[in-house]
Amino acid sequence: MAGLDGRGRGEVGQDGTCPEVREALEAHVSLGTPLPGAVAAHVTACPDCARDLAVLRAVERALLEDLPERAPPPEVREAVLARARSSRRPLRPAPAPPGWRAWGVGLAAGLAALLVTGALFTGSRTAAGALPDPAVVVGLGDALIVASNDRAGTITLVRGDRARASVPSGGARPAWFTEGVRLGGRVYLADAANDRVLELQPSPLRVLRSVPVPDGVAGLAAGNGEVYFKSARGTVGRVGGPVVALAREGELPLADVMDGVLLRRGRLYVTHHLSGEVCVLDPVSLRVLRRLRVGGAPVALAGTPGGLLVLDLGGRLLRLDDAGRVVRVWRVPGTPDKFTLNGDLALLSDRAGRVTRVDLRSGAVTRRPARHPMDVAALPGGTFAVAEGSAGVRLLDGALATRGRVRD
User: Fold this and answer.
1) What is the pLDDT of residues 38-74, one digit of tens each?
2) What is the pLDDT of residues 269-290, one digit of tens each?
3) Are 226 and 266 contacting, i.e. CB atoms less than 8 angstroms apart?
């Protein structure tokens, strides 16, 4: 798109929005249209447009939550979106603008009144109430833990295609879940907005404790009886234990809080997407042993028998051998930021509106559209779960065919 270079802003309109991207953002949120690559890169670099996108998504969630899947009349949606465009909210923890609270209360009250009178919608409570905005999925064999980025920070236990139990995680700010891992009979969730890691008991579902982790939790890994984390500001540590600094970075928008952590064969691997490195640490002392320069913006990791896979936000999946050498590169579309392995199949998610399958044996790369994929998890039998934001959780087989949806 002309005028966008992914690093700076284009011309700014009177309302503070970049005119080149406004229409694409509104179509992406209201219609599920994928963001063009240039727009996605621009939003990553432009704080104002990132805030616009966050506000539009918040409005979309408010319209969908507790409502059947029917669109409101066009004039109502346009009025709400127009009001949203005039109100901005910082993505990082900062005092909200004075007008935001009043606008949010007014929007909630207006929606409630419309629901009571039946002026907009008919019908009863739907799946959106149980899975309000899935952002992280963690596989538990025959079940899933789904963490949602709604105001309550809702955490849901799913079995089959149904939500069996839900609990709010609370928090001073609306949750921004970035990662989830399993360790024994516990699940750990990273909430970057509230600078914490939550420890869960899956059955019966409840939050056991909240462990403060400063500077936004970007990634988690579990093993050896420990949970390791990487923060958005460049620190690595054990949950409830010591912390070391890999780097000192400035504050990031929540949408950019992403990095991968992997415990493999007695080494802790951590991506640092701002420097293009994979750092190798001793998991006990947390001493940095090596820094592997892979370039791009590495954001996720997975172990393989002969080495590890590294996902680059710039559209590459790399295979590294045990010596840290890049031995194979798969080019993938878009800006993928999460992936999971199921046998020889890697499934990548791209928030711009697609999932991509990479066959590690044949090298075949296959993609399919998705509503707003935030996370992916491997399930038994070669299947996958995809957290699609307000669209719920989609279940895919190895050929990327939809096998079902978890919606309530």
Assistant:
1) 787 787 778 778 777 777 766 655 544 444 444 445 5
2) 999 988 899 999 999 999 999 9
3) no
Contact at 8 Å (CB) between 164 and 157? yes
In whole angstroms, what is the distance from residue 10 CA to residue 8 CA? Answer: 7
What distance in Å separates the CA atoms of residue 93 and residue 262, rounded to the nearest whole number?
28
* CB of 63 closer than 8 Å to CB of 111: yes
Same domain, 90 and 151: no
Whether the Cβ atoms of residue 238 and residue 228 lie closer than 8 Å to each other: yes
Cα gap 27→12, rounded to integer Å:
19
Say whether both 110 and 155 belong to one domain.
no
- Is there a single domain that holds both residue 236 and residue 384? yes
Domain residues for the domain of 389 are 127-406
Model pTM score: 0.69
Q: What is the pLDDT of residue 48?
A: 76
What is the C-alpha to C-alpha distance for residues 118 and 131, in angstroms, rounded to an integer? 23
For position 200, which CATH number holds?
A: 2.130.10.10
Task: List Cβ neighbours of 154 (8 Å cut-off, separation of 6 or more).
Answer: 130, 131, 132, 147, 148, 166, 167, 168, 169
Q: Among 117, 142, 157, where does a domain finish?
A: 117
pLDDT in tens, 343-354: 999 999 998 899
Give me the phi and psi of 53, to 5 degrees please. -65, -40
Spatial CB neighbours of 390, under 8 Å, sequence gap ≥ 6: 60, 61, 64, 128, 132, 133, 371, 372
How many domains, the chain? 2
Examine residue 290 and state whether it is found in any structural domain, yes or no: yes
Q: What's the pLDDT at 325? A: 95
